[in-house]
């Protein structure tokens, strides 16, 4: 369903036709494909055969593309710099084969105060760097649901970690203007924001999406003790996860999510004290596992686990 939300403008239809269709509130592939042939002939003003051709174009544009494993491997081998966003933490990058993977979702989990937000701020900074310095040379879309993002902290990190690069004020202004922050505090507004990300990514040339944190608004609004709520909550989270997965793949960008974990055992295994904790919803949503990397930050040992 998420591929179907692709805008018709990006599906290869003539711009004039897209304008005409948008006057009828037909803007996505899904809107287009849900209409009958007769309705399509009426709204496009085109012949039966032309409408058949248009249907083919739109279906192709939103159908998942087949890619062989060999092609995927070659793409990464020929252009390894665009396959990962290095974290600049040597050990972690080694474990991750180069950094946070482009084209997939990465979930950072750990207890409150373990450094998830700091990590996201650092990754945002790194994504704006030129590719020659290991960055992605792009903008960042940062959805903050806990008012945790701090611009001062970002600039502080920039000056402290990369004093040479940020020797002039000009570079600081440039990175600061490339990070677009959205504060969303309700489930509804987070979902709406996620649904509008495709346009944002294109218009801002975003190369990283961060959602910190993905579950806090859900935790606030849903009472897990009520069975119906649980279903609704899980539907919401899987809808969000599937849109984000589509965006990560479509634009070959990393998407970083944070999620608070409730209990932490001394042997390094994280367990959900509340088995229905939202941290599980993303990881367990159907079909997401192969695309989801989980980094667990441990505040005591500074170790990073991944699964
Ligand atoms: N501006 C800052 N300067 C230095 N350390 C900070 C700053 N902000 C937060 N920290 C430290 O980073 C730690 C991790 O914070 P944070 O990333 O917000 O955790 P989380 O998002 O996992 O709850 C905090 O315990 C705090 O000590
Ligand atoms: Mg945080």
Indicate the proportion of strand residues: 15-25%
For the termini, the CA-CA separation is 27 Å
Q: Looking across the biggest beta sheet, what order are the strands in?
A: 5-4-6-7-3-10-11
**How many strand units?**
11
Compute the CA-based radius of gyration. 21 Å
Bound molecules: adenosine-5'-diphosphate, magnesium ion
Topology pattern, helix = H, strand = E: HHHHHEHEEHEHHEHHEHHEEEHEE
Class computed from helices, strands and strand pairing: alpha/beta
Helix content: 40-55%
Detail the poorly predicted runs: 271-281, 283-291
Question: What does this protein look like?
Answer:
- The protein has 307 residues and is α/β, with parallel strands linked by helices.
- The protein is built from 14 helices and 11 strands.
- The chain has helices spanning 15-22, 29-33, 37-44, 48-62, 69-78, 90-95, 116-127, 151-161, 169-178, 187-195, 197-204, 216-221, 227-251, 278-284; strands at residues 84-85, 100-101, 105-110, 139-144, 179-183, 206-212, 255-260, 263-264, 270-271, 292-297, 304-306.
- The protein has a 7-stranded mixed beta sheet with strand order 5-4-6-7-3-10-11, sandwiched between helices. It has a two-stranded antiparallel sheet with strand order 1-2.
- A hairpin with a 5-residue loop joins strand 8 (263-264) and strand 9 (270-271).
- Helix 7 packs across helix 8 (151-161) and helix 10 (187-195) packs parallel to helix 13 (227-251).
- Bound molecules: adenosine-5'-diphosphate and magnesium ion (MG).
- Magnesium ion binds at residues 116-117, 146, 148, 212.
Give a short summary of the structure.
This protein has helices at 15-22, 29-33, 37-44, 48-62, 69-78, 90-95, 116-127, 151-161, 169-178, 187-195, 197-204, 216-221, 227-251, 278-284; strands spanning 84-85, 100-101, 105-110, 139-144, 179-183, 206-212, 255-260, 263-264, 270-271, 292-297, 304-306. With 307 residues, it is of the alpha/beta class. The protein has a 7-stranded mixed sheet, with helices on both faces.
